[in-house]
């Protein structure tokens, strides 16, 4: 994986330091402006539900685009208010590394976002845009219910609003706590990451879990999942800083899906991922 990241970033000519399991910019100062208007990333604003039994899916989304609860299949809670959350982050890699993130109760809001804007809402989807307070980036999230899977499709479009090409890292994060259990197992692959409670049939424990997977061909050239040894969201400019090189067993960890690329002046790159119970 280390050689793959080096090869890719040489091609796109991005300047960064590589940690053993990912990308790091720890040596660069983080610039974090102050946000004047706080937003609510911990209250359910948009609610979705479908199916029953093994096809049951229920989740809710905050006004900021954070997914606060995920319940699937019926009777199993994978994300729950007050114990875990889903979140997102951006790193502006060029011109002095600047991070922007909103991880709800698991790391908070970086304080350099404008208020979210609701672009559309239907019975099965919600589309929310947030622009960074410096005006450099606009992140548009379209979160859609997929009853047949069942799953939650998240489309993230990142627009560079400036007149200069910029290197960007785009992050999705989830603190998985299956059925209220803090300590879960975690692992990751090139295309995703997952947290779960394992099945121990002779102890009458039939486990379940949550998977976050890249879907289709991303417009970002680099994609990788990470299993974190901590439950807070990562520094977007050091997204693999808390990642484990081996599967995590019985620990209060979390999952991350990271995307890296250069985005041209006034251009947008889009990627799609999906949450599924398993």
Structure characterization notes:
Helices cover 4% and strands 45% of the residues. The protein has 278 residues and is mostly beta strands. It has one helix at 2-12, and strands spanning 17-19, 22-24, 46-50, 57-61, 67-71, 77-79, 86-92, 98-102, 117-121, 125-131, 137-146, 151-160, 166-174, 184-189, 192-196, 209-214, 222-228, 248-251, 254-263, 268-277. Strands 9-10-11-12-20-16-15-14-18 form a 9-stranded antiparallel β-sheet, with no helix packed on it. It has a 5-stranded antiparallel β-sheet with strand order 8-7-13-19-17, covered by helices on one side. Strands 3-4-5-6 form a 4-stranded antiparallel β-sheet, with no helix packed on it. Residues 1-36 have low confidence and may be disordered. The chain has one domain (2-277): Beta-galactosidase, Chain A, domain 5 (Distorted Sandwich).
- SSE sequence, one letter per element: HEEEEEEEEEEEEEEEEEEEE
Side-by-side strand order of the widest sheet: 9-10-11-12-20-16-15-14-18
Q: What is the number of beta strands?
A: 20
Identify the CATH architecture.
Answer: Distorted Sandwich
Tell me the number of helical segments per DSSP (H or I, 4 or more residues long).
1
What are the low-pLDDT stretches, counting only 5+ consecutive residues below 50? 1-36
Give the count of structural domains: 1
- CA-atom Rg in angstroms: 18 Å
CATH superfamily: Glycoside hydrolase, family 65, N-terminal domain
Instruction: State the name of the first-level CATH class.
Output: Mainly Beta
Q: Terminal Cα separation, in Å? A: 26 Å
CATH topology: Beta-galactosidase, Chain A, domain 5
Question: How much helicity do the residues have?
Answer: under 10%
Structural shape: globular
Structural class by secondary-structure content: mainly beta
Tell me about the largest β-sheet.
Answer: 9 strands, antiparallel
Q: What integer is the average pLDDT?
A: 88
Beta-strand residue fraction? 35-45%
């Amino acid at each position: 994986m280390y050689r793959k990241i080096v090869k890719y970033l040489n091609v796109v000519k991005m300047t960064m330091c590589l940690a053993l399991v990912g990308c790091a910019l720890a040596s660069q100062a983080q610039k974090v402006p102050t946000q004047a208007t706080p937003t609510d990333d911990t209250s359910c604003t948009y609610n979705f539900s479908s199916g029953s039994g093994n096809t049951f899916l229920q989740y809710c989304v905050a006004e900021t685009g954070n997914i606060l609860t995920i319940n699937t299949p019926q009777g199993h809670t994978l994300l729950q208010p007050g114990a875990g959350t889903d979140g997102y982050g951006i790193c502006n890699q060029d011109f002095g590394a600047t991070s922007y993130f909103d991880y709800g109760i698991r790391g908070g809001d970086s304080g350099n976002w404008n208020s979210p804007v609701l672009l559309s809402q239907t019975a099965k989807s919600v589309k929310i845009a947030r622009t960074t307070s410096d005006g450099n980036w606009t992140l548009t999230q379209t979160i859609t219910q997929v009853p047949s899977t069942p799953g939650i499709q998240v489309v993230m479009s990142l627009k560079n609003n400036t007149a200069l090409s910029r290197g960007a890292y785009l992050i999705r994060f989830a603190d998985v706590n299956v059925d209220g259990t803090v300590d879960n197992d975690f692992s990751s692959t090139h295309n995703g990451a997952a947290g779960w409670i394992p099945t121990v049939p002779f102890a009458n424990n039939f486990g379940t879990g949550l998977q976050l997977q890249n879907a289709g061909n991303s417009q970002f050239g680099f994609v990788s999942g990470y299993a974190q040894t901590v439950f807070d969201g990562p520094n977007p400019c050091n997204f693999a800083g808390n990642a484990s090189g081996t599967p995590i067993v019985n620990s209060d960890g979390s999952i991350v899906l990271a995307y890296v690329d250069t985005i041209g002046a006034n251009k947008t790159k889009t990627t799609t991922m999906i949450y599924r119970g398993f």
